[in-house]
Amino acid sequence: MKYPIKKLFLLSFAAIMLGCVDLDEKPVGLLAPESMFRSKQDVQTAIFGAYGWIATERLYGRQFVSALMLRSDMEDIGDRGTPAERQQVNDFSMDDNNNMVIQFWPTWYQVISAANAAIAGAEALKLPENEINPLIAEARFVRAFSYFHLVQVFGDIPYIDYFISNPNTVKEISKTPAATVYTGIMADLEFAKQWLPEKQPAEVRSRPSKGTAASYLASVYLTNQDYQKAYTEAKWVIDNKDKFGYALEADFQTLFKAPQANNMKEHVFDIDFLGLQSGAGGANDDIVPPMTGVRGGDAPRSGWSVIVPSMKVYETWDSRDYRKEVSFDDSIMIGGKLAPYTQFPNTKRPHIAKYARFAGNSNSEGRYSDHNYAAFRYAEVLLIAAEASAELNGSNEEAIGYINQIRARARNWAGKQTNFPENVKAGLGKAEFIELVLEERRLELAFEYKRWYDIKRRNLGEKVFKGPDAMEPHANFNPARDYLMPLPRVELQVNPNLAPQNPGY
């Protein structure tokens, strides 16, 4: 389902004030949700506006997802002529004035502000629960989705779960402990699971369902090492997959071939971009394909070679795995001839293919694509269930079965059945099996903005950046500093209540 690009600056009032308000000025007026929301349609417009903020250059169009990629051990800087802000994120040398953070921090709060406005407006309508609560649940899901990203990246953050109508209240905003933020996230997702429909109209995946809320609950519990609840939620989604219309796509490539179907069965939640359209403030501007594409290739495949895996990421991935074929471009048309990566004009390494290869309706560099980016796939539900089950019961038949479902799909090489990767067999110890699951996540979800979160939640930084098998070595990685990014300096200057800064910055 394609949504119109909407300007909801009024509904983003709280986020704007967080970064721009002069705390010595007197408020010029108050905002009241009841004056802006007179119908369910007005509430839905605000929610759609929140989705619009997510599908901007500052979040899923480039800045935020690029930061997640560069922070992990799967993606590296290709062209070192790219702005220093990206190199700093990649090289663990960022400071509190990093422009990527300055871009995406307030935008996430714009999303949250739009969601809070929708919730307040919906409640002001005083409609029966069964009529209005599904919309409130959708807004609360969006709020939980936003805070789940923010708390993982920054730790303690301002947690605002109300619509700010008085600028004076900004003076009192301070950081909330991460544990309290997680409590709010879980409460929102539980409400969403209760009140969202089993399927949205036309089964679109850019709006959440009960299955979406439960899947994110499973991920939140996994992040917090509550393995019983993570397993329970993931298993509930698996057991009810037919109700939600979930399944693995037969061909892995289908997941990354724009334009994707709006009701793709593997998508649990996606971020929907519209081809060749853009709006103010970077709205609908998808720059991920050119950021990851090969600089110097023939149109429409030419990119910028900014985010490029190291050679070791490519070389250690078994070439019999179809997912490697889908995930990498190791040759491309240059000057009308197929050229291997050793002849790429700028960065002579295989590049990420998931976004640039089939950018669909886009410009000559793949910009303004019509990708539906999977923020959560059914494959990840299976992976969460396997990991949580193993944490509870060690390597077991059920957990092994979830991994083998994913591997069976990987053996389908564009319709031709192969024998790699083989099924996991019984007999592995608990630690060995969990390591296998994490490796399966690394490959299955490669370049999909998940790896950094796995490194962080499993405390893998020193192993993957400083160990003998590091694919992207960074000797300066410091676990006391680098599992969190810094709060933007400008935010602390405007509001000292946000202090202290994260350690090491």
Automatic annotation (TrEMBL):
Identification of the protein by name: SusD-like protein P2
Primary localisation category: membrane
Superkingdom in the source lineage: Bacteria
InterPro entries (alphabetical): SusD-like_N, SusD_RagB_dom, TPR-like_helical_dom_sf
Any Pfam family the entry gives: SusD_RagB
Keywords noted in UniProt: Cell outer membrane, Membrane, Signal
Source organism of the structure: Dyadobacter helix
Cellular component, GO annotation: cell outer membrane
Record domain RagB/SusD: where: 327-505
Coiled-coil ranges per UniProt: none
